[in-house]
Design a protein that fits this description.
mainly alpha; 13 helices; 2 strands
Length: 473
C-alpha cells in the first residue's frame, strides 16, 4: 500500500494567488530575469467577508508615499505644467497618467490658444528691424530670425503627444525604486537633485528674459507688449534643456549608485542569485535609458534642429558685419549664438555622459571583479551579467533617428560651417550698393562728356563747310 497518493483536486500547473509555489515537491529555486514587466496575479473576489485576501503580486511591496525621482525633478515639472506644456495628471503619489479630460490638459489648451491669439494680434504690428536706408541681404536674413524665434510654438502640441510616454517613464522609475529598495534591504534610492532642479527652475526664466530683452533692445524697435511671446518661447526652449539635463543626471546617478552597491556586494557575495538580482536591476536601468530617448523623440529632434537653424543665422549675421565693424546690433546676435551653442552642447554632452555611466563604467566594474574565490555558479552569473551589458544597448537614441552624444554635436557643427560658407559666398557675389552707385556716376559723366564732345565736333564741321562755300562764291 502506498502512503503517498496524488490529490487530483490540487492544481499542479496553475499558480495559487496566496503566494505559495504550485509545485511543493520542487525544492530547487530557479530565477529567470527578463527585460519585461512581470504579469500581475489577478485579484480573486471572495464570497466570504471574513476571508483573507491574496497578497498583491505575491509579494509584500514596500510602502511608498511618493516617488523619489518625480519629487527631485518636481520644480521643473511644475514650471512646465504652468507653461501649459506638460499636462501630466497624478491622481495619487507614484501614479502618472495622461488624460485628455484632465484639468491640467484643459489648462494647457487654454494657455496655448491664448498664446496663438496673442501672436496673431501682434502680427498686425510687425516688428521692424533697425536697418539702414538701403536694405542689405544680411539684414534680410537677420529679420528672418524674429520669425524663426516663433517656431517653438510647435513644441507645445508635440509635448502633449509625448506626455503619455513621459508618464510611462516616471512609472518605470517608481518600479525601479521598489526593486532597489527590496534589493538593498529597505534602503531608499539616494537621489539628491532637488536643489539643482530648483535652481534650474529659478535661474533659467531670469536668464531667458534678460536675453530676449537684450536682443530686442539692440536689434528692433523695442515695445514691451511685443516681447511677451518671445519671452515665453525662450523660457520654454531653455527649460526643456534643464529638463533633459535632470533626466540624464538621474540616469548617471542611479548607474553610479548601482555600480557601487554591486561592488560592495561582491566583497561578501553569498549565493549566485544576488548577482542575478543586480543584473535584473541593471536591465531595468538600461531600459529606462532607452525609453528616455524614445519618450522625448520628437520634442528634442525639433529642439536640436531649431538650435541648429538659430546658430547658423546668428553666426552669419555676425560674420557679415566683419568688414564694416561690429555695432550695437551685433550684441543681440552674439548673445543668441552663444546661448544656443551652449544649450546644444549641453544636450549632447549630458546624454553622452549618461550613456557612459550606464554601460561603460558598469562594464569596468564587472571586468575588475576577482572570480578566483567565487564558486562556479557565481562566476557564471558574473559572466552572464557582462554579456548582458554588451547585448543591451544603453545609448540614448531619439526614436532611432540618431544617438544623442558628442558625435551629434560635432556633425551639426560641421554641417553648420558648410552652410555658413555658402551664405558668405552668396553675399560676396552680390555687388555692393555703394560700388554700384559709383559705377553709375562714372558712366553718366563719361556719357555727358562724350555727348558734349560730339556736339562741339558737329558744330565745328558745319561752320567750316559754310566758310568754304562763301570763299568759292
Amino acid at each position: 500500500m502506498s502512503l503517498f497518493t496524488t490529490n487530483i483536486s490540487y492544481q499542479q500547473n496553475g499558480s495559487i494567488p496566496n503566494g505559495y509555489a504550485s509545485h511543493i515537491a520542487d525544492k530547487k529555486n530557479k530565477i529567470i530575469y527578463l527585460d519585461v514587466t512581470p504579469v500581475q496575479t489577478p485579484r480573486i473576489k471572495s464570497s466570504s467577508t471574513n476571508s483573507v485576501h491574496p497578497l498583491r503580486d505575491n509579494l509584500i511591496e514596500p510602502h511608498i508615499n511618493r516617488d523619489i525621482i518625480y519629487e527631485n525633478i518636481k520644480p521643473v515639472f511644475f514650471l512646465l505644467r504652468v507653461l501649459g506644456v506638460l499636462p501630466l495628471w497624478r491622481p495619487s503619489p507614484g501614479v502618472n497618467q495622461f488624460q485628455i479630460t484632465s484639468p491640467t490638459m484643459l489648462y494647457s489648451i487654454a494657455c496655448y490658444v491664448g498664446l496663438i491669439g496673442y501672436v496673431l494680434y501682434l502680427s498686425l504690428h510687425k516688428v521692424q528691424i533697425l536697418r539702414a536706408s538701403e536694405g542689405k541681404f544680411e539684414e534680410a536674413v537677420i529679420e528672418y530670425l524674429f520669425t524663426v524665434y516663433l517656431f517653438p510654438m510647435l513644441l507645445v502640441p508635440i509635448m502633449w503627444y509625448e506626455t503619455r510616454k513621459i508618464a510611462g517613464i516616471l512609472n518605470g522609475w517608481v518600479e525601479f525604486e521598489v526593486c532597489y529598495k527590496k534589493l538593498s534591504s529597505g534602503r531608499v534610492l539616494p537621489v539628491k537633485l532637488y536643489k539643482k532642479s530648483l535652481a534650474i527652475a529659478v535661474i533659467i526664466p531670469i536668464l531667458s528674459t534678460s536675453s530676449v530683452v537684450i536682443t530686442h533692445v539692440t536689434m528692433v524697435d523695442f515695445k514691451v507688449m511685443q516681447i511677451i511671446p518671445y519671452i515665453f518661447l525662450e523660457i520654454l526652449t531653455y527649460i526643456l534643456g534643464g529638463y533633459w539635463y535632470l533626466l540624464c543626471e538621474t540616469l548617471s546617478v542611479c548607474a553610479s549608485l548601482l555600480a557601487e552597491d554591486f561592488q560592495k556586494a561582491l566583497r561578501h557575495i553569498g549565493p549566485a542569485g544576488k548577482v542575478a538580482e543586480y543584473r535584473a536591476l541593471w536591465l531595468r536601468l538600461s531600459k529606462l535609458a532607452r525609453d528616455t530617448g524614445i519618450a522625448n523623440c520628437y520634442t528634442f529632434t525639433f529642439v536640436n534642429l531649431y538650435l541648429f537653424l538659430i546658430i547658423t543665422l546668428s553666426i552669419y549675421g555676425l560674420l557679415s558685419q566683419i568688414s564694416e565693424g561690429f555695432g550695437i546690433k551685433d550684441i543681440g546676435l552674439a548673445v543668441t549664438a552663444c546661448c544656443s551653442i551652449f544649450l546644444l552642447f549641453f544636450i549632447c554632452d549630458e546624454a553622452h555622459y549618461a550613456s557612459q555611466n550606464v554601460r561603460t563604467n558598469f562594464q569596468k566594474k564587472l571586468l575588475m571583479v576577482e572570480l578566483s574565490w567565487m564558486n562556479t555558479d557565481a562566476q557564471t552569473e558574473v559572466n552572464m551579467f557582462l554579456r548582458a551589458t554588451e547585448m543591451n544597448p544603453s545609448q540614448i537614441s531619439l526614436g532611432g533617428f540618431f544617438d544623442v552624444n558628442r558625435n551629434l554635436f560635432k556633425s551639426l557643427l560641421a554641417t553648420m560651417v558648410t552652410y555658413l560658407v555658402v551664405l558668405l559666398q552668396f553675399q560676396i557675389s552680390i555687388p555692393d550698393d555703394a560700388h554700384t552707385t559709383n559705377q553709375l556716376d562714372v558712366g553718366r559723366s563719361y556719357n555727358d562728356s562724350w555727348k558734349t564732345a560730339t556736339e562741339s565736333t558737329l558744330a565745328t564741321t558745319i561752320l567750316t563747310t559754310l566758310a568754304r562755300k562763301k570763299k568759292k562764291n
